[in-house]
Structure formats: C-alpha cells, structure tokens
Amino acid sequence: METAIITGASKGLGAAVAKLFLESGIHVVGISRTDNTQLYSYAKENNADYQFISCDLSEKDAIEKVCQSLEEILFNDTLSKLYLINNAGLVDPIDRAENIEIDDLMKQIHVNTVTPMALTNYFLKKATEHNIQLLTAIVTSGAADKPKYGWSVYCSTKASMNMYTQTVAIEQAETEHAIIAFSPGVMDTGMQEIIRSSSQGAFKDVESFRALKENNQLRDADVIGGVLIDILMDDNIENGKIYDVREYI
C-alpha cells in the first residue's frame, strides 16, 4: 500500500495533488485547517482512502499530535511507500520589513519553514525505522532566488527550504529515500488572490500580478499538480534537485 501525506490539502495545489494521488489508487492523508469533502468522492471512485486531520500548522503542539496520530495510522505491515508533500505555505503578511509585527513574522516562518522541516525530519526517522521508502517534495518558489519588494519573509523562507532540501539529500544519498523541492510558478489559487489584494505601497509588483489574472496567464493547479506527480513517480527522480515547472510546460 502506498500513502501520501499532503499539507494544505483542502484547496489549490494541495487539493489538486491529493486528487491525482487518489485517482492513481494511492491513499491520502490531508492535513489542513479545513476539509475538502470532494476528496472523499474521488477516493471512493478509485478504491482509495482519504483521511483528513485538522491542524493549525503554525502551532508546535498541534504538529506533534499530528505526527503521533499518523504514526499510529500509517506504519503497519501493508505500507510499502510513503509520500510527503509539504505544500502548505503563507505569503502574507506582504509589506515592507519594518512594518511586519513579530507575531506575523513568527507564524509565517513556522508554516513555511519549521513545519516542513519538522514533518520531513520526523517521517525520515520513522520510515527508516520501518524500512519504508519516503519520497518528500517541498513546494518552493521562484521567490527563493529573486528578492521581491514586500516579500522579505516569504523569499527568505523559500530560500531556506531550497537549502534544506539540498542538505538533507546529501545526508540521504546512501538510502532509498529522496527529497526534492518543486517550484510551481504562478497558479490560479487563493494565494494569488492575497497577492493581488496588496497595496502598491506594500508590494511594488502588485499590478503585474493583477495583469496575470486579467490576461488569463495563471496556470491551473491541476496541470501543475500533474507535473509534480509525474516527477515523484519517475524512477529517475533526482534527489536534492530544485525542480522548476517551467522545465515541463
């Protein structure tokens, strides 16, 4: 049995990837604040199983409880491969650095950096203990390599996840595990709505993002999700690579 753990599975890219895994007959555990009831239907139609765990990924205690619950649910004699998709992320607050409050700063760093690192660390350990292959994908961004006015936290957290991916890949080079980062480009998701709602004083490039929507230049999350699934299913997946969707579409 193969199972995928997906953070932020209720909408956007997370929901698209969950649907595609289910259509492939792979069981899915979605972790987010809200549920997506359509995923249960996809699971039933494809003889797969979808489970939802409600969790605020900005809370340390909540993440620890999720890990404990998942260990009890997943690690049994039937599990053969585990996918971990660290998809959840926050782009807000979008503002000049001096205007960002410490609570907002800590929340964004926790969701974008601490949570994917903590989940990956935990499931690397458990997968190794149970002799199960773990394939991990961390959703990153082009903002990891290109600073943007008003995105000091988002750019920094994504850059840190690229380095984390490459470092862990070195450590796992002699194992069957693999970890990649995946840059999905601009998609028609809720995150884009948040970006477009910014003021120009907080985010100088806001008009260019509004133009992407107006000119129908935002890619569909299902298409991007399909690219990620293909990468993960490829026997030649390159451990530690920062995959860019532009290489594929």
Automatic annotation (TrEMBL):
Record's subcellular location = Cytoplasm
**Entry keywords, A to Z:** Cytoplasm, NADP, Oxidoreductase
Ranges annotated as spanning the membrane: none
Do you know which Pfam families this protein is assigned to?
Answer: adh_short
Output the InterPro entries linked to this UniProt entry.
Biopterin_syn/organic_redct, NAD(P)-bd_dom_sf, Sc_DH/Rdtase_CS, SDR_fam
Is Cell membrane a UniProt keyword of this protein? no
> E.C. number, please?
1.1.1.320
One GO MF annotation is: oxidoreductase activity
Q: Which PANTHER family match?
A: SEPIAPTERIN REDUCTASE
The UniProt similarity line reads: Belongs to the short-chain dehydrogenases/reductases (SDR) family.
Give the matching NCBIfam families. Answer: PRK06924.1
User: What name has this protein been given in UniProt?
Assistant: (S)-benzoin forming benzil reductase
Q: What is the lineage of its organism?
A: Bacteria, Bacillati, Bacillota, Bacilli, Bacillales
